[in-house]
Write a structure and sequence with these properties.
The structure is a homodimer of 335-residue chains. With 335 residues, chain A is mainly α. The first copy, chain A, has one domain (9-332): Farnesyl Diphosphate Synthase, CATH 1.10.600.10. Helix content of chain A is 71%, strand content 1%. Chain A is built from 16 helices and two strands. Chain A has helices at residues 12-19, 21-34, 42-51, 58-69, 76-99, 110-113, 116-136, 140-163, 171-196, 201-225, 240-243, 249-256, 260-271, 279-289, 292-312, 318-332, and strands at residues 103-104, 107-108. In chain A, strands 1-2 form a two-stranded antiparallel sheet. In chain A, a hairpin with a 2-residue loop joins strand 1 and strand 2. The radius of gyration of chain A is 20 Å and the shape is globular. The two termini of chain A are 31 Å apart. At the A-B interface, helix 5, helix 7 and helix 8 of A face helix 5, helix 7 and helix 8 of B.
Chain lengths: 335, 335
């Protein structure tokens, strides 16, 4: 349970995983137990495919870290960590239907292996299971936080449907979308960790702010990497957002400075969805011309700074250091 | 607020609606208010299409009736009634995606008017909104009931995916499926009405039993009507389950008594989905040959009797009479 010494060279999320190993083992057991279904064998099949594909379990670790950092000694934080992972998995299943995705984490998606029906209904099942888990903690404040986060997530996803392919989408709308699709669950994850530990309001607020800023930085970086990151090299994970015509921060920055000719290009490829060979390279050249990637990275760095400020309001603790390093690490992927 | 006198000839759900008119007006206002979204205009568009299509609002009336019958004087039962209607609407949106339906209540479905994405995500939004509403009541017991009902609903839907086209599906599995897809929300609706009214356990249990039996009778009748009811006439609402290859009670009864030739027919049309002109008429002829429709109707009548028995455990009240007549009316559609 000590993250110092020879593990120092590890990535912060791996050090968190080491420190929280006992808790995470309990969370994983809870996830396996609750994703089962006596009546519908399709449910564990689909869920196992996704849950055991080896995601980083970042969100449940945030809940565990927040609670442990504040000296929590019970086990309800494990239920909440499993809750958060179930909500995340449910949204992934529904996202893959919405995006018509064929691969996630290098494996075929559930909607491809089974069908859209299974992804929709098993997502609903996991969401219900998460709901049962949080009710078991008996904390109305936790239920309130997670109900609000769920609504923000769904609202952000619907907003993205209409805003993503519209060149009028500005940075304020983009921020709303990514708060919904990513940051709302990060901030709920850290906040409920504080609430279950019985922390005072200022501490709970700082945990919310940290999760919110971390989630926003994380999603901006993800959106930058989709255009090849700082290297701007086309790789196998490059161009998904472009092909799905999602207006993300780098493109919003480039559209704001576009020449008439560039604007016509964005209208064609994003709004009209008329994409041809070479268009992705052309998009990346335009982003580079307007320094859009490094501007987006500056925004991510600003959110990392806010995450750091939020942590300053929390007690000194090895887990606090790991959370700080995590926020820096997230953005280092594009530096 | 009096359901007697000149309204006597009305159908029971209309008499319930008259009696509960003030409550229902408040519930409808709550529904309109909570289906709004500041950020995502697509949400009220899709929801209004469905919510205002004029469903019977049967489920919220069950919650209101249960609470009022027990003398409840607050307003939390209205929140729970809106909760139940939101959960119902969310499941309809997802069902239409799963069933690839094109029409509901005589109008094009949301997945056809917008797209599957909108139906999935707006369904998620409504489910989250329902969750917020129930948290506002501050009753952990209510939250527990609705969390369990949500899981039962999703599990039943997934079970139907795999069981529906499998001739090995028997009456026990069918019962599980329809408890999930229909009865779980009926029984939760009546049960939470009793809980919010502070009723003793035996009363709450009787309300659960009534809702469960009513929901099962309701779904069996729906499945009978899909084969033309007692008249066995092909109408515009006939044959949807057959075309979707759903193994419902009449077919399960006929399969159990099938000759080798009939069994080959069911294997072809249900399991293999190889359907040709005249097959629906052929299916109805086989159902008729084995008296499958009237046997299924007898099951529905047995559930109505259980609904009546459950009501015997509740205090005498005009609303109790209406609930009794409702249970009889549901089955009268196929008598």
């Amino acid at each position: 349970m000590d993250g110092s010494g020879e593990t120092k060279a590890k990535a912060p999320q791996d050090r968190l995983a080491d420190w929280l190993a006992e808790d995470m083992a309990a969370v994983n057991a809870l996830i396996r137990d609750r994703m089962a279904s006596k009546h519908a064998p399709r449910i564990p099949e689909v869920t196992a495919h996704l849950v055991e594909a080896g995601g980083k379990r970042l969100r449940p670790m945030l809940t565990l870290a927040a609670a442990r950092m504040l000296g929590y000694q019970g086990t309800d934080h494990q239920k909440l960590a499993a809750t958060v992972e179930f909500i995340h998995t449910a949204t992934l299943l529904h996202d893959d239907v919405v995006d018509e995705s064929e691969r996630r984490r290098g494996r075929p998606t559930a909607n491809l292996l089974w069908d859209n029906k299974s992804s929709v209904l098993v997502g609903d099942y996991l969401f219900s299971r998460s709901f049962q888990l949080m009710v078991e903690t008996g904390s109305l404040r936790v239920l309130d936080i997670l109900a609000n986060a769920s609504a923000t997530i769904a609202e952000g996803e619907v907003l993205q449907l209409t805003a993503a392919q519209d060149l009028a989408t500005d940075e304020a709308i983009y921020l709303q979308v990514i708060r919904g699709k990513t940051a709302a669950l990060f901030s709920a994850a850290t906040e409920v960790g504080g609430v279950i530990a019985g922390a005072p309001d200022a501490t709970v607020r700082a945990l919310y702010d940290y999760g919110d800023a971390l989630g926003i930085a994380f999603q901006i970086v993800d959106d930058i990497l989709d255009y090849g990151g700082s290297d701007a090299v086309i790789g196998k994970n490059t161009g998904d957002d472009f092909r799905e015509r999602k207006l993300t921060l780098p493109v919003i920055k480039a559209v704001a400075r576009a020449s008439a000719e560039e604007r016509a290009f964005w209208v064609r490829v994003i709004e009209k969805g008329d994409q041809r060979d070479g268009d992705l390279a052309q998009a990346m050249a335009i982003l580079s011309r307007h320094d859009a990637i490094s501007q987006a990275r500056d925004e991510a760095l600003a959110w990392t700074a806010r995450a750091r400020q939020a942590l300053d309001n929390l007690p000194v603790h090895p887990l606090r250091e790991m959370l700080l390093e995590l926020a820096e690490y997230v953005v280092a992927r594009v530096s």
